[in-house]
Amino acid sequence: MKSRTSRVLCLFLFVAAVSTAATASQITGPQVPRTVAESTDYDATSRYADVMAFIRQLQRLSPLVRVETLCASAEGRDVPLLVVGKPVPASPNALHSDPRIVVYIQANIHAGEVEGKEASLMLVRDIVLDPGAPYLDKIVLVVAPIFNADGNERISPENRSDQPGPKQGVGVRHNGQNLDLNRDSMKLESPELRGMVRNVLVRWDPLIAVDCHTTDGAYHEETVTWSWAVNPNGDLPLLEYQRQKMFPAVNAIMKDKYRTPGLGYGMFKDFRAPEKGWATFEPQPRYVTNYIGLRNRLSILDENYVHADFKTRVTGNYVFLKAVLDYAVLHSDEILRLTAEADRRAVSRGLAPKEADGFGIDFDLLALPDPITVHSYEMQIVERPGTWPEIKKTDRKKTWTVPYFADYRIKRSVRFPFAYLLPGTQADVAAKLLEHGITAERLEEPVRLEVQTFMPKDVKGADRLYQGHRMNTLRGDYTLETVDFPAGTIVVRTAQALGVLAAYLLEPESDDGLAVWNFFDRDIVPQWGRGYQAYPVRKLLQPANLATRTIKGD
Ligand SMILES: [Zn+2]
Asked: How much is the pTM?
């Protein structure tokens, strides 16, 4: 019985290996797991138990899949992280002097946007069961198919009801703490994001990461839209590489190999006047894609087209992931070199920051040199007094070739320092930096230094709460002063691969720093009286030799 089954399986695998099918799996057989999307003819999506059963079934068929725990969710679910390799590495240490690169696929961060969950499971299955699949010679895949497991389990047809399928419903956007996980990369308040940073980014150091979503807006024919990390404080050569080389090359693979055109992510700046242009998403690193970009890694936002039917969306996501892997296989040596160079640039920048070396705190969004072509439709706008107008798609196709606003430029910047110094009592801030994988130290002896101090003159908390915070905007003046720092003072040098991330978290006027997320509220507002107190993080602009000891994480 057993041997007959495995002969049948071998035959299926052989058929799969010789077929040149570019899209959905040809691998079938009595034991080969199928996703809930496939087995219900795209009427339903997988629940947590379905995902875990699929993974276990796959492990019974292949030694190439290992399961780690990304985190325990707020509701106590073990969020699975698949490590897929040939051979599967026992730990990241096994990858030292291994030419394979790690690619991370994250799905279901918004659990109403479920295509990535189905597509990533299908992809892992098809790769490990197809001996002809080329990817694992060059790549170790790390996959979180159900990143927001708690949100996933709130499946209801009421969620995202404008989306055509799956009929049996999808989960919700937020996690078990009512947080939007794609706004949590800087403050790290969720177990999912803390788990991603620690157990994926720090542990496996993926050189490419893909975060899978579904669009909410515009009508167009393209079923896959996507973007690179757009924050201009990131390593610029890496940003330009993604924009100028990787983006067109992956789109070409999508079109030529998979007959699925890809489109730069965005929406019309003005839906009443599409000719004004197509604009990308916000630049802040609270978005996972931008956050990973700030860490000097290639980072991709995938947005599946909401108005396509569920099967089309899953298939589009599946071939997009394949196209990214096709590109990664062809360019793995180049990607290793470019990301290592970006890390080295970050360190040397922090060793001797120049006066002209700025950290951006305000940005302009400019159009790229080349326009973008969006295969859209003529729209009908129905005005609704007192609320947003309804935008209806007509059947009349209309192709727009318009400016693509996807080039953020730094409009206002502050000095990029040699180091930041914080009072030794700011242990919670130091712990947060360590959660990000940033190196922080403490002074071993007192030292007198000339530093730049920020004195707030205007601190505005937002009227409306957002993610449990009244997000701050700080404005003020920088002055140079000589300060005596006692032993125990926390020191964060920018000469580290994550130096820009440290600046993003610690700069007082940063648009997504810890000050924005209320970490310094009690420091800058005095107990009584008016006005403000100095921002507690001082900036050491010039290099100095300091006797310090590294703070150890837990
Ligand atoms: Zn989303």
From this structure: 0.94
